[in-house]
Amino acid sequence: MRNRTGAVIALAALAMLAAGCSSAAPPAASSSPSPAATPSATAVSQPTVSPGTATVPAASASPSASPAGTPTLGQLAGDFAHGQGFGQVKPSEIFNGGDPTGLVTHIAWSSWGGSQATATGTAEYVGPNQSVAQGTEESATVVAFDLGTCDGKYMYQAVEWYFPQHNQAFNANTYENVCTGSYVGSP
Question: In the 8-state DSSP scheme, what is residue 111?
Answer without folding.
Answer: -
